[in-house]
Amino acid sequence: MNHRSGIRPRERGAVVGMSLVGMSLSLALLTGCGGGGGHGTAGGGKATAPAPAADDAVKGPAYRGPALPGFAARPAWSLRAKSTSAPGALDLGSTLLLAKDAQGDYASTPTGSVLSDSEEAAPLTLEFRDVKTGAVRKALKVRARTVEAVTWRGGAPAVAVTSSTTSKSDGLTEAKTTTTATLYGADGGELAKVPSYERGALLDGYRVEKTGDTLRLTPVGGGPSRTVTCTGTAASCTYDAETGTADASVAHAPLISGGYYAGFLNASDFQTEPEQITLSELATGKQVWSTAGAKIPEGVALDDKGHHPESEEKRILRIADGKVLVGWKAGLSFSSGSWIHAWYDLKSGALLTSYKGAEEVLFSPSGDLAARDVVKFEDFPGTAVWQTADGKRLWEQQGGEHALDPVRFTADGSVLYGVTDDKSATDTGIAVDTRTKKVLAKNLPEENIPSVDTATGYGYVGTEAALFVFAPA
């Protein structure tokens, strides 16, 4: 008998700060970043001479907000807001991208991964600023409807600048609007042009397209496409651009991670065999691993015949260093924390270690630490922090504490920022020592919870006064 009592992954909206929520989970899952090059300025991008150091950044306003644990007391640089909202930024890994309109106003805090969004194409100057100094490495003058963060080959950060053309109706046919995206790397060099572009449909340099009841991955610039395996009567596999995950009936996995792409077997409520997740190589299309052949870890309840897990819910959490971390639902109970995490060797398939975990997880940038995250529609008892290599718990919240909803770790993993619900009108920000649970800062306004550039360890916040960028402590 099948037990498909699953819920979709938590839909985390545009959280505090200006980090790329849509990308943060997918980049965290990757083993590293490759990159596309290119130095052209085609596609509407006209290069201007980069400033050796941005005077307005270096001489920006002083920071008057609360201290930010894990970061220097004073900002390395700041950029004054011309309007009532701070300049927004897209994190491209050691580069912050800002967009300035013809009047000199900067686009404000991004909505998810989108920095600028307008009905009609408008002139913008894209500033690729050095995270550490604020210097403008490159400035591009473009006409754009939207400016959106995407990922290029190997997970390298990139930006898609879109423009649209509309064909008028001849009286019978409907008017048709076509959107084209020009992709730029973190250095401002052009990577590629993508016709018929749809927002959120580009991942690691592949176009993600729904085809029938499954997904097709088509590389930008040519090359073999890959079709996501999605078997089962009435099966329908989908893609969540916000989290970068592919979803079947009750199984979830990053669509692309570490050079692999996901697939699903028996992905339907109408199947008698358990739902499984597969991993295949992007380069060859060859399947290399499946939960179907994986040893079931201790702590996972089995069905009446003792052959399969009692619950079919499972998810791939991380791929790194030739290993895959899988979360297995321990049983049919809906109780929080009833999950087992297990590491497997991708080459041999061997089960390496397993321990009690959680359904939703926030990883530190290096992936060596994890925190229990909120699950939608379930009571949240508060977070816990553990080592991902062996599951050793560093601490766990107890009764009588305000539940801490984790937002992000600092780059070195030493500080965990989050929000707590103290039953007041608004949630408040808090920072705790990752190893000891010691409260380092409390009552932080949500706008003062820093986003983190993991490539450099720098943090940045935007207030009504300015964009402030801090070096790691």
Inertia-based shape = globular
Q: What percentage of residues falls in helices of 4 or more residues?
A: under 10%
Roughly how many Å is the radius of gyration? 23 Å
Beta-strand residue percentage: 35-45%
Mean pLDDT: 87
Which key phrases capture this entry?
seven-stranded mixed β-sheet; 35 strands; mainly beta; 3% helix; 473 residues; eight-stranded antiparallel β-sheet; single chain; globular
Descriptive overview:
- This protein is mostly beta strands and 473 residues long.
- 3% of the residues lie in helices and 41% in strands.
- Strands 1, 3, 4, 5, 6, 7, 8 and 9 form an 8-stranded antiparallel β-sheet that branches. A 7-stranded mixed β-sheet has the order 14-15-16-21-22-23-24. A 4-stranded antiparallel β-sheet has the order 2-35-34-33.
- The N terminus is likely disordered.
- A hairpin with a 7-residue loop joins β30 and β31.
Give the arrangement of secondary structure elements.
Elements: H1 21-29, E1 46-48, H2 55-58, E2 77-80, E3 90-91, E4 95-101, E5 114-130, E6 136-151, E7 157-167, E8 176-185, E9 190-194, E10 202-203, E11 206-211, E12 214-219, E13 226-227, E14 238-240, E15 245-247, E16 251-254, E17 256-257, E18 260-265, E19 276-281, E20 287-290, E21 314-320, E22 323-329, E23 339-345, E24 351-356, E25 361-363, E26 369-372, E27 384-387, E28 393-396, E29 404-409, E30 415-420, E31 428-433, E32 439-444, E33 451-452, E34 459-462, E35 466-470
Parallel strand pairs: 16-21
Antiparallel strand pairs: 1-6, 2-35, 3-4, 4-5, 5-6, 6-7, 7-8, 8-9, 10-11, 11-12, 12-13, 14-15, 15-16, 17-18, 18-19, 19-20, 21-22, 22-23, 23-24, 25-26, 26-27, 27-28, 29-30, 30-31, 31-32, 33-34, 34-35
